[in-house]
Amino acid sequence: MNLLSIGGSDPSSGAGIQSDVKSFSEFGAYGLTVITAITGQNTSSFGMIEAVSKKILKNQIESILTDFKINGIKIGMVFNSEIIKTLYQQLKKLKIPIVVDPVIKSTTGGALIESKAIKDFQKYIIPLATVITPNKFEAEILSKSKINSKNSIEKIAKIIQKMGAKNVVITGIEGKNNKIIDFVLEKSTKYMISGDRISSTNHGSGCNYSAAIVFAISNKKTIRESVKFAKEFTQDSIKNSKKVGNGIKITNIHKKDQINAELSQSINEFIKIKNIYKNIPECQTNFVYSKPKPKSTKDILGLSGRIVKAGNEVVVAGSLAYGGSKHVATALLVVNKKFPHIQSAINLKYEKSIISKIKKSKFLISSYDRIKESKDNKIKGSSVEWGINNAIKNLKSSPDIIFHKGDFGKEPMIIIFGDKPKNILKKLSKITG
Predict the structure, then answer these.
(1) Helices 16-26 + 205-218 axis angle, to 10
(2) CB of 214 closer than 8 Å to CB of 225
(3) Is 128:100 a contact under the CB 8 Å cutoff?
């Protein structure tokens, strides 16, 4: 996945394009950048701003869009009207998610947009937004209204939505019981997502939030799922913020465990495989990766939902969680007990043509017959555990693939096994290409 950050350069790397690249990398996406302005700032103070010329701004965008397939764009600092109008002309025809983070003022005190450019921001940038993510202060500036008993959060959000943004998320609203609320206005629904208030002045949380949203919606997540993901990600970055310089803390992205990072990246690669939708079974697909020496399926990372077929594409429904998979994780657990180096697996639709390719390959394959399973085990036991045990009981080397042809009411299935998710993808390329 390729994500583009358009915004200002922050030499402290606390915010701006530097912060976005760190976030994108953490998500397993490739981060690209277009610089609108260069700032001189650190954790204690804000210095100068120098906007880039229209010529180099246009050239940056054209260079990126002609060479890369961009899955999503985040727009941050735009600074002046010339930048705003140039961005609009370059981006207005794109049919990809765009998240607008209307940065107006830096945490360290600098004005990040000229006051005379706000009108053009409303006219040209807001209509580009799939999602716009102002905090309370920014929402009030854009709407020219104070959020109070007379003007509700919903009223302010509707004013911004009428400017052209498809979805409006107003962040940082103080709630009851020490909660911080994000108000979400979609086209036909509204709701709030709350989280614990973290008493900490920091630099970068707004950038973390909008970067997480563009990643999530570019992954076909709903607006609600994307906002929830962004809130959790941002809260984690605030909790782990570090005092790097002499001033305020900079948010710190808490590094995922390597298992999560590797599986997330492999899932992103899997869903981009040409015509892979043809290999998704009726029960859908799960992709799992285990901790070393798993004791139960709770030690195996998988999707709490599934990788599902949507027309001629596949999308990820749900999020990664330990214990998120039942059947594929159980199959992996059984194989891992005999062959501990096998820590990853994925299930695919059973097709005779695929089986034919598998048999012509150098893969070690095995199978089992579900018809032979006893009625008692079907009722009281685990059919998956029984089947996999039967498939591997006489094997001296670990299997690459195990399949079965189904039973009454049970869909036939292929499961690919490997030591790591990336090796699953290598095996997959040899039998689906």
Answers:
(1) 50
(2) no
(3) yes
Q: What tens digit of pLDDT does each residue of 327-341 get? A: 999 999 999 999 999
Token pair listed for 123: 């006219």
pTM: 0.65
Domains 2-255 and 261-432 share a fold: no
Question: Rounded to whole angstroms, how far apart are CA atoms 61 and 86?
Answer: 10
Q: Where are the domains of the chain?
A: 2-255, 261-432
Pick from 402, 274, 297: which is nearest to 347 by CA? 402
CA-nearest of 266, 272, 277, 268 to 351 is 277
Q: Bridge-partner residues for 12, per DSSP?
A: none
Q: Which of 303, 335, 330, 308 is nearest to 399 (CA)?
A: 335
CA distance 346 to 127: 41
Q: What are phi and psi of 382, to 5 degrees?
A: -110, 115
CA geometry: angle at 84 spanning 116 and 20, to 5°?
A: 115
* CATH, range 261-432: 3.40.225.10
Joined tokens for residue 232: 């959790």
Q: Which two tokens stand for residue 298?
A: 């709770």
Residue type at 33 in one-letter notation: T
Encoded amino acid at 149, one letter: S
Query: Domain 2-255 in CATH: superfamily?
Result: Ribokinase (3.40.1190.20)
Q: What is the pLDDT of residues 101-148, one digit of tens each?
A: 998 887 766 788 888 999 999 999 999 999 999 998 999 999 988 887
Q: Average of pLDDT values for 240-250?
A: 82
